[in-house]
Fold Protein N-lysine methyltransferase METTL21A.
Amino acid sequence: MSTPGVTGAVMWDSGVVLGKFLEHAVDSGMLVFQGKKVVELGSGCGLVGCIAALLGAQVILTDLPDRMKLLRKNVETNVKEGNERGTATVRELEWGDDPDCELINPLPDIILGSDVIYSEGAVTDLLATLCQLSGNHTTTFLAGELRNDVVLEYFLEAALEEFVIGLVDQAQWHPEYCSHRVAMFVLVKKPQKKDLQE
């Protein structure tokens, strides 16, 4: 996992589960992606972001510079320009750095991430990026394989300072794409004091 390029070239179970959840949620009327701005963090191969685009969203898939070649190829292959649904573009983003204007203006309606909670060292930068990209109307869906309870607990405890967090019940997932080794969380930014006064 520490070898550059390895994590971005593997299709993890949580990405499949999250992608099929989005498809199921749209089909059942739980979520609407048509016309929504979506940012995917740590896109890797790009499955989740491509699914969101095919569901009608305007998606920006992000990852580190060394992941761009495969990600761009997969997006070009799977989300054809001029399709009547959504769009998909690819941008470099290193968590913790200031995001490009395109990512935050306007802020996304939905943020997606699969297997982005993998080390304590990455948690602070991931949360900084989530805070920068999240507005009052942004909903974040994060799915991950349950590998390291310590890292997950560290992330959840730190995230609770800025976000309200819920666990997405498996009854809402795609019935054929479930795994007890995967957890899915939904995060919404807590209102700031200045927002409450308005």
Notes: The domain at 16-197 is CATH 3.40.50.150 (Rossmann fold). The first strand starts at residue 37 and ends at 41. The chain has one domain: 16-197. The chain has seven helices and seven strands.
